[in-house]
Structures are given as structure tokens and as C-alpha cells.
């Protein structure tokens, strides 16, 4: 388990304080794919680099499996670092070395025998599906292939934690998808805990089970991806999520609404998981004396659950509208009024 306990980090640049992290507390459990999202400068990389003590906190404690990483002896720290792999946006491969040699570097440093290195590297190349590129140089590889080499190198010491610093930000969407599938396989088959920092919400949506949203050094929102995506609280979270799960009335529909002189209320409902199965809309239309008009609907699958967003215009008198919203609340469906 990785535990950030009340972490703050201040950099001094030309006598000016930069508060890169402010009182950050997070728990990352074994087996998690934990995503940290935020815009540039939010403090994500600084936080990630705390895990292998490439960065030390000004205040607070970073615990890995119960021990304070900044209180370890040199040898103890070296051992912990072997248990932590890291991949980067720009891959960080040695251009003058072949794919094989790049992956073998950590094993050579570990003084592993040649035969064992050969065995381990071949297995890793197979795992990342690059066996045919064993003797190629990085310049002969695509971005996705380079990242696969980076991943194989990070896995070479058999770590239990993998840190990913914007690992897909330099890749096109299709290649991103294949790398994310590989990360999922690493988590599932090798039982490796993954910590990802990214500014791409689709990365979080696609593979993470937990998320923390960072803004100006603070964690402003965190929790399971399902709970945060289905009920985002903070403005920044809503902005990120709306790019992959739109929740706005389309402009053309909005124009028509402006001409509508009937008495109505507009509500936005979010259905989560099981309650999407209940045919609430059917019930509303049959049992209340109001007309409903669907202005927008989207349904997304997340962590094998369904998140539905419906924006409904309810046309009728206030008593009937109140009955409907009470009925919706009683069915534990989140809703809020949308004001034009
Ligand atoms: N070594 C350093 N010296 C001085 N300031 C730093 C250093 N490292 C980071 N910072 C500053 O700390 C803040 C957080 O930076 P950090 O790289 O952690 O953000 P980030 O969210 O990862 O952004 P990006 O995605 O652009 O890397 C920024 O204002 C950055 O300029």
C-alpha cells in the first residue's frame, strides 16, 4: 500500500516559494489502478516522484507498505526502488542500445547472469508483444513500440508497483488504447499496483478504478471512478468529465426551448449502476399528469457499470412537477434543476 500522509512540497525558485503540493493525503491500495488527473502544473509529477523518493516532501510522510520511505537507509531505499518500476511520456530509452539491451539494463546493474538475463528479457519481450524487435534500435520504433520497451524495462526487476508519468500523452488515440490495454493486463495478470498521472480523462475512464483530481497542489476530489464520474462535485472535475461524458443540452434544442412558453421545469438526472434498469421514465409518463420531453441523453459504461445522464423537460403545473421530482428522489436517482 502507498500512503501519502499530509504531504506538502515547496520549491524555492529565485527566492519565490512554489507550493507544488498542499496537504495531500491519499491511500493507494494493492491492486489499484489509481489515476491522478489535473492540468499542467497541478503537482501530479511531483506527487508521483515522491513514491520512489526522487522527490522528498517538505512536510508529511510517504509510506510504502508501512515504512516511511524517507527514513530508509541507502540500502533499504535501493531495495524498495527495485520494487517500483516507472515509465515516462518521452520513454527515456537509450538511443545507442538495442531494444534487448535497453530492457536488460536494470538486470545488468543487478549483476544477474547472462543466461538469466536472456531468459527474463525474452519473456518480457513476449509479454509486451515485441519479440520481433529484439535487435532494433529505438529510432526504428514507433511511439507505441518505444513505450512497450519502456514498460518491459520497468517490469524487468519484477516490481509490485508501476508508476506511469503521462505514459500515453505522446501517443495517438489508437496507440494509447493498446498501451492502456497492456497496463490493464499488467495489473490483472502480474498483480501490479499502478499509479498513473495524466491530464487525459479518457485514461482515467478507460482503466482506473480510483481517481484523485488535483488543482494547484491540492487534491480537490477523490474516490472510486464510478462514484466520482457519476457524481462529480468540483467544477474542475465536472469540466474534465463532461469531455468524455457530455451532459449539456445541445444548442439547437436550447434554441427551441427559448421559444417554449409553456410552464415547465428542466431536470438533469444521473442514473448509476443498477437503478438504470428501473423503468423510471415509463412510470413517470404513465402515472403523472405532466408531459415529458427528453432534451438530452447519454449512457456510458464505466467499471462494468452503467452511468446514464438524462435531461428531461417536465411540462405541467407545479404540483405535478413536485410529485415527479419527489418520486425520482425516492428512487435514489440524483437530480438537479437545470436553469436556462
Ligand atoms: N524541481 C523543481 N523546481 C522548481 N519548481 C518545480 C520543480 N518541479 C516542479 N516545480 C513546480 O511545481 C509545480 C508542480 O509541477 P509538476 O510538474 O508536479 O506539475 P504537473 O501537474 O505534473 O504538471 P505537468 O503535467 O506540466 O508536468 C509547477 O509550478 C512546477 O513549475
TrEMBL record:
<dbReference type="InterPro" id="IPR018449">
    <property type="entry name" value="NIL_domain"/>
</dbReference>
<keyword id="KW-1278">Translocase</keyword>
<dbReference type="InterPro" id="IPR045865">
    <property type="entry name" value="ACT-like_dom_sf"/>
</dbReference>
<keyword id="KW-1003">Cell membrane</keyword>
<dbReference type="InterPro" id="IPR017871">
    <property type="entry name" value="ABC_transporter-like_CS"/>
</dbReference>
<keyword id="KW-0067">ATP-binding</keyword>
<dbReference type="InterPro" id="IPR003439">
    <property type="entry name" value="ABC_transporter-like_ATP-bd"/>
</dbReference>
<dbReference type="InterPro" id="IPR003593">
    <property type="entry name" value="AAA+_ATPase"/>
</dbReference>
<keyword id="KW-0472">Membrane</keyword>
<dbReference type="InterPro" id="IPR027417">
    <property type="entry name" value="P-loop_NTPase"/>
</dbReference>
<protein>
    <submittedName>
        <fullName>D-methionine transport system ATP-binding protein</fullName>
    </submittedName>
</protein>
<dbReference type="GO" id="GO:0005524">
    <property type="term" value="F:ATP binding"/>
</dbReference>
<dbReference type="InterPro" id="IPR050086">
    <property type="entry name" value="MetN_ABC_transporter-like"/>
</dbReference>
<keyword id="KW-0547">Nucleotide-binding</keyword>
<keyword id="KW-0813">Transport</keyword>
<dbReference type="Pfam" id="PF09383">
    <property type="entry name" value="NIL"/>
</dbReference>
<dbReference type="Pfam" id="PF00005">
    <property type="entry name" value="ABC_tran"/>
</dbReference>
<feature type="domain" description="ABC transporter">
    <location>
        <begin position="2"/>
        <end position="241"/>
    </location>
</feature>
<dbReference type="InterPro" id="IPR041701">
    <property type="entry name" value="MetN_ABC"/>
</dbReference>
<keyword id="KW-0029">Amino-acid transport</keyword>
Amino acid at each position: 500500500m502507498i500512503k501519502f500522509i499530509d504531504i506538502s512540497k515547496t520549491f524555492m525558485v529565485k527566492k519565490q516559494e512554489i507550493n507544488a503540493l498542499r496537504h495531500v493525503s491519499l491511500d493507494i491500495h494493492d491492486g489499484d489502478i489509481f489515476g491522478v488527473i489535473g492540468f499542467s502544473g497541478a503537482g501530479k509529477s511531483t506527487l508521483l516522484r515522491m513514491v520512489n523518493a526522487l522527490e522528498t516532501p517538505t512536510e508529511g510522510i510517504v509510506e510504502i507498505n508501512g515504512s516511511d520511505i524517507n527514513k530508509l537507509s541507502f540500502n533499504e531505499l535501493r531495495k524498495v526502488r527495485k520494487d517500483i518500476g516507472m515509465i515516462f511520456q518521452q520513454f527515456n530509452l537509450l538511443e545507442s542500445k538495442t531494444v534487448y539491451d535497453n530492457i536488460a539494463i536494470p538486470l545488468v546493474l543487478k549483476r544477474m547472469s547472462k543466461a538469466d538475463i536472456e531468459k527474463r528479457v525474452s519473456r518480457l519481450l513476449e509479454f509486451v508483444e515485441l519479440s520481433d524487435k529484439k535487435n532494433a534500435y529505438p529510432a526504428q520504433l514507433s511511439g507505441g513500440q518505444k513505450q512497450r520497451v519502456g514498460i518491459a524495462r520497468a517490469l524487468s526487476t519484477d516490481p509490485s508497483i508501476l508508476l506511469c508519468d503521462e505514459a500515453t500523452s505522446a501517443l495517438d488515440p489508437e496507440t494509447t488504447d493498446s498501451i492502456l490495454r497492456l497496463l490493464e493486463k499488467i495489473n490483472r495478470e502480474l498483480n501490479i499496483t499502478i499509479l498513473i498521472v495524466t491530464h487525459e480523462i479518457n485514461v482515467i475512464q478507460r482503466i482506473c478504478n480510483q481517481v484523485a483530481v488535483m488543482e494547484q497542489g491540492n487534491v480537490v476530489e477523490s474516490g472510486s471512478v464510478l462514484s466520482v464520474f457519476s457524481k462529480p462535485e468540483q467544477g474542475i472535475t465536472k469540466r474534465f468529465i463532461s469531455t468524455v461524458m457530455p451532459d449539456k443540452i445541445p444548442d439547437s434544442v436550447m434554441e427551441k426551448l427559448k421559444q417554449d412558453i409553456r410552464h415547465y421545469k428542466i431536470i438533469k438526472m444521473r442514473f448509476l449502476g443498477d437503478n438504470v434498469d428501473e423503468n423510471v421514465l415509463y412510470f413517470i409518463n404513465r402515472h403523472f399528469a405532466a408531459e415529458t420531453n427528453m432534451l438530452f441523453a447519454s449512457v456510458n459504461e464505466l467499471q462494468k457499470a452503467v452511468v446514464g445522464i438524462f435531461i428531461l423537460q417536465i411540462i405541467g403545473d407545479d404540483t405535478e412537477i413536485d410529485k415527479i421530482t419527489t418520486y425520482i428522489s425516492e428512487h435514489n436517482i440524483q437530480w438537479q434543476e437545470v436553469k436556462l
